[in-house]
Every structure is written in C-alpha cells, then in structure tokens.
Amino acid sequence: MESEKEQMDRRQFLKTASGKALGAALAATGLETIAKGTDIHEGPDDLDKYDFVMPRVKYAHQRKEVDRWNVRPGGDTNLLRELSAVIRCRVKPIKGVRDWDPQWAAEGQLNAIVTFDEPDEVMKYPFLFMTGENHFTFEDHQKEMLKEYIHRGGFLFMDDCVVDTGGDFFYQSAYALLEDVFGRGAVKRIPHEHEVFHNVYDLGGSGLPHMQYVQQQIPTFPWPIRGRRQPQISSLPVMQGQNHGARGVFIGDRLAVFLSSTDIHCGWCDSHGFTFGRHNYNKAIQMGINIIMYALSH
C-alpha cells in the first residue's frame, strides 16, 4: 500500500499537472474525480484548454533506419478522436495525419513531446506514451527522472512496434530499463482480472489485444471520399506483435507503468481494418481508452 506521504504527493501531482481539466474528463465517465483543485499549473496553454493531452516520449535509438520514437502519429489521433467520442471530453487534436501516414511525425503532428532530460516539462503531464521498434538505453540521470516521475504519480504506457520479421527489441529494452530503475522483479504480469481490462470496456478473459495481420496490403492516399477517386493499394511491411502478455510496474496497489509487446499503437492506425481487421482496431482502441482512464483515476 502507498504511504500517506506518497498519497499526498500523488494528489499534488495531479492537481498541478492537470487540475480541473482531468476532473472534467473523469466526471464524464462517472468515475470519481481526483483532481478538483483550482490551482492549475502555470504551464502550456494546452493544459488549460484540453481535458487530455497525450505526450510522446522522445529518446535515443541505437539505429536510425527503424521505426523511431515518433512513428505513425495517425495512431495517436485516432485514439484521441475515439476517446473524445466515448468520454465526451476535450482532447488536443492532431492535424495533417491519417491512419498510417505519415510514417514519422513532423513538427506539430503530436500532442506534445517530452524527454526525461527536462524534469520541468515531463512533470506537467500525468500520462506519457512511448513506442518504437529498436533497442534503446537511458542515461543514469534519465533513469532517476523516470523513477521520480512514476513515484510522484505519473503513468507511462510503453508499447513495442514489431515490424515485419523484426524482434521485440523495444520490449526487451523497456523490460530491462524498468527492472534496473525499480528493482529486479519489479515488472510483473498484469492479470486478466485487473480493472485496466474492465473499467470502460470489458475486454473479457483474453486481456491484452494482439495485433496480427489479416492482409499485407493497405491503401495509401488519397482515401475514399465521396466525389474522389478510390484509394491506391500498395504493399507495406507487416506489423505483427509478439505477445508476451501485459506487464507492468506497480507502486503499492497502483499500476504505474503498462508495458505491451502486441503493437497496440499499430492497431490504432488501422481505422479501416485493412491490416488487422476492424475487430482488432476496435479492441486496440478500447485497450487504449481503458489504460488512459485507469491512469487518470488512480
């Protein structure tokens, strides 16, 4: 169980990071509002204008030609659109992206960007998202910042992007990083009974969705819109996650880090169901919404 001091730090973190904005998002679901404070952090205007902002974590890769930290911003925008429709909250929109295009985000094509080199910035956000394909490592000061962020109440969602026949390199690096930062054995299996699989959507006994391709060709722009020509078809690398099951780091009873290897983010990109099927797109979106709402209510 969390100590009284940890609980106080958690409440203060949520108040200064999001204040009324998170309260609005949670109230829309009927969940208990944690952050009712009026002293909203004097940070970026986004924290005042929107109920939810999803920053990407920027980090150094060991290879540059693979899917990097800013891969496929269209997945982010699809999740945010679906979240706002279900929860009826204000999310920061992302413009100029659609499903799989572009491959890597340009300036302004992500909600926000943070690194564990800038404590003042990372502490403004109660929820962070991190994805990629390749091995990576953190410097000692970044590990300390990650540890402080989590213990002060932050939540980190890490999702491996396995492309074609590649390995689960991001997952391996993330697992090793978390065990180094939080101690050996800190990364634990998240049981299917855990509320993160049942809070907004009931994902049943299967738990973590697993993205596996149903076909190897997906459409490229232009997309089918009334009065415009039909999409062109081109072959793209197959995305196929390696299912190690859901893993996480718990601080007391609170799940604080969610680690997956099943390409949930790639599932968010596939709103037309050309690669994984519409069913898997829906499950990936539902998992993302469940994770966000769990993070904001604990």
Topology at a glance:
Elements lengths: L3 H14 L2 H8 L18 H4 L5 E3 L15 H15 L24 E3 L4 H4 L4 E6 L7 H12 L3 E6 L8 H14 L4 E3 L27 E4 L11 E4 L11 E5 L2 E7 L3 H6 L8 H19 L2
Parallel strand pairs: 1-2, 3-4, 4-9
Antiparallel strand pairs: 5-8, 6-7, 8-9
Helix pairs in contact: 6-7
Q: Can you offer a commentary on this structure?
A:
This protein has 298 residues and is of the alpha/beta class. It has a single domain, classed as Rossmann fold, CATH 3.40.50. Helices cover 32% and strands 14% of the residues. It contains nine helices and nine strands. It has helices spanning 4-17, 20-27, 46-49, 73-87, 119-122, 140-151, 169-182, 264-269, 278-296; strands at residues 55-57, 112-114, 127-132, 155-160, 187-189, 217-220, 232-235, 247-251, 254-260. A five-stranded mixed β-sheet has the order 3-4-9-8-5. Strand 3, helix 6 and strand 4 (155-160) form a beta-alpha-beta unit. Helix 6 (140-151) packs across helix 7. It is globular, with a radius of gyration of 18 Å. It starts with a helix and ends with a helix.
Quick overview of this protein structure:
It contains nine helices and nine strands. By secondary structure, it is an alpha/beta fold. A five-stranded mixed sheet has the order 3-4-9-8-5.
